Each structure stands twice: as C-alpha cells, then as structure tokens.
From TrEMBL:
GO terms for molecular function: pentosyltransferase activity. Residues 66-157 are annotated as: Disordered. This is Glycosyltransferase 61 catalytic domain-containing protein. It is a single-pass type II membrane protein. Residues 66-81 have a biased composition (Polar residues). Pathway: Glycan metabolism. It comes from Panicum virgatum. The lineage of its organism: Eukaryota, Viridiplantae, Streptophyta, Embryophyta, Tracheophyta. It is found in: Golgi apparatus membrane. One of its GO terms (cellular component) is Golgi membrane. It holds the Pfam family Glyco_transf_61. Keywords: Glycoprotein, Glycosyltransferase, Membrane, Transferase, Transmembrane, Transmembrane helix.
Amino acid sequence: MGTDSPSPSTAPVAGLGAKGAARAVAQHHQAVVGFLLGFFLVLLLYTTVSSQFGSQNAIGVLQSTSTSPAVRTGQNAMTPTSPSPKPNDVKKGDHIKEDNKEQQSNTPNKMEEDRTQHGINGIEKENQTEAKLDDEKVKNPEGGQAAVNDARSDRMEEEDLIRQEIDQGSMIKNDTNIGQVTPRKPICDLSDPRYDICEISGDARALGANRTVLYLPPAGERGADSQEWSIRDQSRKYLEFVGNVTVRSLNASQAAAAPACTSRHAVPAVVFAMNGLTSNPWHDFSDVLIPLFLTTRALDGEVQFLVSDLQPWFVDKYRLILRNLSRHDVVDFNRDGGVRCYPRVTVGLRSHRDLGIDPARAPRNYTLLDFQLYVREIYGLPPPGIDVPYKEQQQRTMPRLMLINRGRTRKFVNFPEIVAAARDAGFEVVPVEPRRDLGVEELARAVDSCDVLMGAHGAGLTNFFFLRSNAVMLQVVPWGHMEHSCMVFYGGPAREMRLRDVEYSIAAVESTLYDKYGEDSPVISDPESIHRQGWQFGMRYYWIEQDIRLNVTRFAPTLHQVLQMLKE
Ligand SMILES: *[C@@H]1O[C@H](CO)[C@@H](O)[C@H](O)[C@H]1NC(C)=O
Ligand SMILES: *[C@@H]1O[C@H](CO)[C@@H](O)[C@H](O)[C@H]1NC(C)=O
Ligand SMILES: *[C@@H]1O[C@H](CO)[C@@H](O)[C@H](O)[C@H]1NC(C)=O
Ligand SMILES: *[C@@H]1O[C@H](CO)[C@@H](O)[C@H](O)[C@H]1NC(C)=O
Ligand SMILES: *[C@@H]1O[C@H](CO)[C@@H](O)[C@H](O)[C@H]1NC(C)=O
Ligand SMILES: *[C@@H]1O[C@H](CO)[C@@H](O)[C@H](O)[C@H]1NC(C)=O
Ligand SMILES: *[C@@H]1O[C@H](CO)[C@@H](O)[C@H](O)[C@H]1NC(C)=O
Ligand SMILES: *[C@@H]1O[C@H](CO)[C@@H](O)[C@H](O)[C@H]1NC(C)=O
C-alpha cells in the first residue's frame, strides 16, 4: 500500500482524468491500461522465469516431518538443510544435461520458461508454432533448445526483461490505434481493456489450421460487406506472443464460396489459447482457468474447446478441470484440418481482473469463492462447511503448516531454522519444494490437509485454491515495498475465498540484499527511489536478487498470532 506498484484493476481508473475529447480519453485509458498490463505481465513473467513453481507440478512435498502426514516423498527428496536450488533433481534415464544453475529436463516446464522468454522478446514467434517447439523438445531434449537454456544466465534474463519493456512500450502505442472501427453488426467486442472476444451465432465454421472462424449470415442478410477481425484468443490482449485468430463475417459472394462443413456439432465451441504466460501456476489460473470458468461454466459441460497453441502438459495437468468444464474432446485447433460447424462459437476468454472474478459481470454472479469451491469439488476435497482439519479432526493436536521454499528467487536461506521455529511454536510442519513428479490431485489433498499455507510472495501460494475456508495463508513479504503487490496477487483473492490472510513483512536485515548492498544503499534504505527509476529496477532487486533469512525471533509473534486464530 502506498507504493506506486500499479494494479491493472485499479490504476487505470486513476489514469482516467477529466480529459477533453472522449476519444482521447479512451485512447489514453487504453494506453495506460496497456502499459500497466504490460508491466504486470512482465512482473509475473519474472515469477515464471525465476521460479521453479513454474514446474509442471506446481510444488511437491519435499519431506514430511516426523509428525506430518504420509505424503509421498519422491526418489530425490532432499533434506531441507540444503538452501540452494537442487541441481540434481533430474530423473534417472532422462539423459538430460544439467547445468549447475537450474534443473533441466524435458518436461514442458523448462521449455515453457524458455519459450516465454523468447516470445516476450518477440523473437521466433512469427514462424515457430508452439506445436513445433513441442515436437523439438520432445524429440530432442538435448538439442538446440536445451543449449539455449544452458546459455542463459540470470543476467541475460534481466536484459531480456529490459528489452521487453521497450518492445512492450512500442507495441502498446501502436495498439491504441487499432481496433477502433465499430462494426456494423458487432461480432467482436474489442472494448475491454483486458481481452477481446468474438461471439458468432448461427452458421459458424471453424478452420483450425487457418486459425480462422467464419460467420455466414443467414442467406437473406448477406450483403456486399464483409468484415474481419484478428484477436488474441486469451485473456491478455496485449500479450504479444499469444497468436491471433481471425474472425471473418462473409458477404454474399464469399459465403457462396465458403468451405463446406466437414463435421457438424450440436454444442457451442470456445476457441482459446493455452500458451502465453502459462506454466506458472498463478498464470495458469489467472490467465486461462478462471477466464475459462467465466466463459464456459454456465454451459454445464455442453461446450467444446478448440484450443489454439495447445499445450499437452496443460491439458494433462488440469485434466480434471477441463473435463468438467467440457464433456467433449479437446480439439488441437492448430492441427485440425477440418471445417467444424457449430451453432455458436466464442473466440477468446473473458477476464475481469488478475486472478479474480467480478460477480456483477459473471454469469450466475459467480464469485472467486464459487470458483474455488468448484475446483475443490472437482478434486474431491471436502465440501464447504467442513472446518479446517485442526478443528474438524479430533485427533489432531497441532495445526498443520505447509511451508513452501521457493527454488531460485526469494528463497528462505535458513529454511531448516524456520521449520524448527514453526514446530517450536506448535505446528506440525510439511516442508515443500518445487517438484515435478507430483500431480495436482495429490498436491490438492496435501494442501487441503493443512491449516496454514506459508511461503514467500510467489506462485507457490496459488495452491491456496486447495485450502479450506478459514485456513490461513501466511505470506512473507520480501523487502522493497512489495506489500501492495502481495495484496493484489494473493492477499485480496485469499480474502475473497474466505481464507485468513496474514502477511509478515520482513525487515531490511532479513533480506540478503542487506548483506549484498549494505544498509546505506538505496536498495535497502529507499526502495521507493529504486522503483522510481523504472519497474525493471524494482524487479531486479526485489523480485529476483533477493533471498530471505527470516529472523525467527521477530517472526515468532506472527506464528503465535496464526496459532491463536486457528484456536479461536
Ligand atoms: C519467417 O520466415 C520467413 C521465411 O522463412 C522469413 O523471410 C521471415 O523473416 C521470418 N519472419 C520472422 C519474424 O522470423
Ligand atoms: C509502431 O508504429 C510505428 C509507426 O507506425 C512503427 O514505426 C513501429 O515499428 C511500430 N511498432 C511496432 C512494435 O509495431
Ligand atoms: C485455409 O488455408 C489454406 C492453406 O493455407 C488455404 O488454401 C485456404 O484458402 C484457407 N481457407 C480459408 C477459408 O481461409
Ligand atoms: C465480397 O467481398 C470481397 C472482398 O472484399 C469482394 O471482392 C467482393 O466483391 C464482395 N462480394 C460482394 C457480393 O459484394
Ligand atoms: C492480434 O490481436 C490483438 C488483440 O486481440 C490486436 O490488437 C492485434 O492488432 C492483432 N494482431 C494482428 C496482426 O492482427
Ligand atoms: C462437473 O462436476 C460436478 C460436480 O462434481 C458434477 O455434478 C458435474 O456432473 C460435472 N460435469 C461434468 C461435465 O463432468
Ligand atoms: C448479477 O448481479 C448484478 C448486479 O450485481 C445483476 O444486475 C445481475 O442481474 C446478476 N446476474 C445474475 C445472472 O444473477
Ligand atoms: C531478530 O529479531 C529480534 C526481535 O525483533 C531482535 O531483537 C534481534 O536483534 C533480531 N536479530 C537479528 C540478527 O537481526
């Protein structure tokens, strides 16, 4: 709070001053929104590229404490005494080269990160489809792609980010001049600051290989006019590397020459992209799953997904949710050579805000809590009304706390000490670290069995969707005036889901930046001045360079507070 960290959901309103011409205001508005969205996606991207929670399997249980539940520990379970990223967490037989910085594997995770970085710099995006990248990765994990990964240092990532800001800026300026034409009979709505969407009812023909959806007006209404839109079919319209889908409303002669249906379907279809910033769980939910819920949940499964840039790992990871939202097969749209005819096609996904739902705009007035309860039901977790495990299970003598240790950035350097402190405070501790071989189902059950989910600000906290109402999310806020971001990304959503949200803001000395730069450096003494130099500076220091050495003495009252909350 009080920081100038912009929030896409609030800041644009502030940007809407009492300007003169409505058009100018609209464009200004769009530009501001665009910039802020750009800022945020980069910011979140950083969570992606620097977090091992980008892992296919969000997080995995590292090691159960003696008193903790029998959660599976993998063959490479590590002791929490190692504070550094685990270099050896590579499955035997994968034949993957490792470097000493980060885990390498042929799971989509690494590729996602890498691809995201390429994409965000506008490189290799035009000519290389995701499918091709997938193939390369699968066929040749040690090939060129992996070599690029190996060569990438943190420094390069930073430079990438700075370049991205420049790209982003110019892209947005141009975007403000696009899409201002109001269609005669609107099919596409380009007015929302977050997303573009097209709705075609009647004779809609989807040509996957062309990334095109055609609308044939009723015979009597076909005139001379044809119209065409090109939109990004995900919830971030400024995300450069989400490919566009073309929507064309045909005139009389075009309609007469339109390709015939190769299949006809009774249910509506939704076209959306699975790439973008996905692979970071926060983005998986914020950019795709929640928007998909908003766009399709009210259809009660009677809808078909035509997925552009299909990501097999995503389909597999979230299969339970996808299968419930749609009882029909997922179509790999880019590779679909047919002409699929539907009574209705929606291109794009609605989205209200980052990781959020605005009930007034949602079908059936859904809330984020509805979404969470829906997800919990799908994963077979206890229904609402069941209290946190500590209260509900007579045999529990201590509340259970899941402690997330991030892999590379914002990690706890004194993790074992924190585990011990939480135990001393009266918690049963379940330490977790990023892991790939743990499925969402298993993770969901593990989180559900906990009363507290604790971690430093980062994507691992997205697992709060699996907590029960009244459970506690304990977010450790790193140094650098990050309170606002912490609230926007996690604290606010947690409250909407009736979780109890507790933040612990570290002191300067608890940041490794303090050791590195000293107390007189503005990095420590004046974070605002760093933020003012440009977001990429705040990013570099506070999101990327920083690790955390929690002062367990100073932290003890927070643990005590959480314990009291649970005992109430
Ligand atoms: C795409 O490929 C074509 C020919 O292969 C090349 O001329 C063009 O510059 C490429 N575009 C990008 C953006 O790489
Ligand atoms: C934006 O438009 C200007 C002028 O029309 C052009 O020079 C520039 O390359 C464009 N930028 C992008 C990213 O397309
Ligand atoms: C779809 O793409 C194919 C191959 O590029 C092209 O021949 C065909 O005309 C396209 N169809 C439409 C309706 O755009
Ligand atoms: C339909 O649109 C095409 C392309 O704009 C144009 O060439 C054609 O003459 C139009 N047909 C009619 C019947 O107006
Ligand atoms: C792709 O879609 C976005 C927004 O959905 C739009 O701003 C952009 O102009 C489109 N790009 C092209 C090449 O049509
Ligand atoms: C989705 O899940 C709900 C609740 O478990 C269930 O009632 C419904 O039938 C499921 N729908 C589909 C399409 O599987
Ligand atoms: C949702 O709420 C808004 C106002 O909050 C109301 O106008 C709208 O009718 C509601 N929609 C449904 C489907 O209940
Ligand atoms: C840890 O916190 C306690 C209580 O706030 C304080 O007295 C102590 O000096 C701190 N230790 C370090 C190393 O900063």
